[in-house]
Each structure stands twice: as C-alpha cells, then as structure tokens.
Amino acid sequence: RRWVFALGQRWVFAVSLCEMESKRAKTARGRRILARREPQLVENPKRMLVLRGQKTSALVNDVLRDLFMMGKPHSVHFKRHNAVHPFEDITPLEFLAQKNDTSLFAFGTHSKKRPHHLVLGRMFDSHLLDMYELAIQRAQSMAHFVIAARGGASAESKPLLLFHGEWENSPTLASLKGLLLDFFLLQRAAAISPIGIERVVVFTASSGGDHPQVLLRHYAGTLKKSAEGTSPFVDLREIGPSIDLQARSR
Where is each Brix domain found (predicted)? Predict the structure, then answer.
C-alpha cells in the first residue's frame, strides 16, 4: 500500500507539472513575455527596470531618467514612488523584475542618512544575483548639454564602452565593472567598424580610500578627415549624462 501511495503521489505530481507546462498565454502581451523567457539561440539584450523609492531628490530623479534613456528600448521606467527596501526585503523587487521580464535594476532613494542614494543590481532567474550601493556625488543630465552636440548619434545605437583607471586594484571595482558591462553593453558585437561608432561611454575608476569612485562620461563620436590627409580620427563631444559616483558600504 505504501508503494502504491508513493507511486500515486508521483503520478499526481507529474500530471500537475504537465498541466503547468501546457498553460498558454491568453493575450498577445502574455505570449510575447513567454516567448522572451524561452531559451534563445542568440541571447536577447538584457532589460533594465528603473524605479524610485519612497523618497527621492531631484538629483536622483535626473540620474534615473538618464539611465532609462541610455537603456532604451530595453528599459522600463516606474515614475511613481515605490515602498521598496532592497536590503531589507528583496521580494517585492524580484516580483517586479519577473513581472516586467527584467534582469537589471536601478533603484534610487534619498534620506538624511544616505543622501542621493543609487542601487544597481542584477537578477538571475528572477532572483537577486548581486547589487551595489552608490552615492551620487555630482551629476549633469542630458538636458544640460547642447542637443546639437549629439550630431547624428541615436540614443538607441550600440555604445562603445571604455574602462579607464584602477578597476583591477579593488575587489569592489572589479565586481562593479562586470555589472556596468551588463547595464550599458546592450549587445555584443563580433567586430567594430569605426564608421559605426556613434556613442562612447567612458568609465574612470579611482580606488583611493575606503570608498572607490567611478566617473561616467557619455560622448557622441563623429568620424572626421584629418587635415594632413592621413587616417581619419574620431571627434568626441560630451552629450551627457555626466555622473560622479562613490561606492558605499552598508
């Protein structure tokens, strides 16, 4: 009897799994979400969730908006305030990430204890992989830069990422570099054509002191002819955002 009961339990459990797998989305949006979650021969670009905490500052809002713009069309922006506390309970954030099919998140808050606070993190299988606390020391949004300086650069073009400074001198910076690659490298390219470089994002790291610093600069690149008639060169013009960050420890 025990053996039959155990077999029956397994059979019921197997049937329930089959029923779960046989479920189909009833709406077009649901079918698109399920299709994105299926295994892919070529991995799709990572999607980013941008959201605010219960209280934010104008500086935090500007940084979040610019991160959303740099991540388009693979980013989702929640403009309302959310009662989310990632370091106390990550469950609400994991739920929002799964619901919106995002594996990256940028979360901003502002308080007296932690002013102009930014949290960047990654998810794997809808569960937290890692996250980093950063203090926004200074920031100039895209709106502060002359629109004409952008030239023909499209906000949705693939950027070239440059890492400069002491990224390997600190375990925190080395880990943060991997996260920044996921955030800003929308698609990996097997080869690069100089003609196709429209945007360049430069990250400069300084490991001095207990709290490493990271400077983010965003440029539009234009290929121009040399006056001497030699090889062309790339002219860089800053288009924003320009952000100075400092790593925080809890």
Answer: 46-250
Omega before 241 cis (within 30°)?
yes
Give CA–CA dist 15/157, Å, rounded. Answer: 47
Domains delineated in the chain: 48-247 (3.40.50.10480)
> Which of the listed ranges 20-29, 62-71, 168-177, 226-235 does the model predict with the highest average pLDDT?
62-71
- Predicted TM-score (pTM) above 0.70: yes
In this structure, how many other beta carbons lie within 10 angstroms of the beta carbon of residue 46?
18
Contact at 8 Å (CB) between 139 and 238?
no
The average confidence (pLDDT) of the chain is 84
CA angle (74, 79, 80) in 5-degree steps: 140
Helix, strand or coil, per DSSP, at residue 4 = helix
Distance between start and end Cα atoms, the chain: 56
With vertex at residue 246, the alpha carbon angle to CA 241 and CA 250, rounded to the nearest 5 degrees, is: 135
The amino acid at 13: F
- The structure tokens 């390219």 sit at 189
102 and 25 in contact (C-beta within 8 Å)? no
Rounded Cα distance between 229 and 249, Å, is 52
Q: 51 and 84 in contact (C-beta within 8 Å)?
A: yes
Query: 170: which 2 tokens?
Result: 């600190």
d(CA 173, CA 107): 19
Query: Rounded to an integer, what distance in angstroms lies between the CA atom of residue 195 and that of residue 237?
Result: 16
> pLDDT: is 247 or 209 the higher one?
247
Q: What is the pLDDT of residue 227?
A: 77
